[in-house]
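Most newcomers find our protein records easier to grasp once they have seen one. A learned vocabulary of local backbone shapes supplies the integers on the structure line. Here is such a record, shown just as it appears in the course material:
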Amino acid sequence: MSEKTNRIIYWILTALIAFVFIGSAIGKLTANEEALKMATNFGLDAKTFSIIGVIELICVLLFIIPRTGVIGTLLLAAYMGGAIATHLEHGESVIAPCVIQAFIFMAALYRFPELRKTLLNSKS
């Protein structure tokens, strides 16, 4: 693929990930009724859920900013690992968190060519 195609894919994935995490964080920070119900099911109180929303915002901002993209990617991947574990522990479906995690990894491969070369033994 050309460099231009890679950048387009990267920006689409980045925008999609940012949209998902910012929306999720807003739901947590505004104490949305549906979000609070989910938090209660996971054994979390409103204050803890708000803190998680702040953490989500910080992680996604670090992910979006080019200079801090690597640390943001690592933090989002770790966050989603925790989400997958929480869903498994409570008998919830892990499909959505796994799909989001896959998008994070795909964005990282397109965004950081050195990572793609190392992991996939690719020349491009």
Remarks:
- The helical segments are 3-29, 33-41, 46-64, 69-89, 95-111, 113-120.
- The first helix runs from residue 3 to 29.
- Residues 3-120 form one domain.
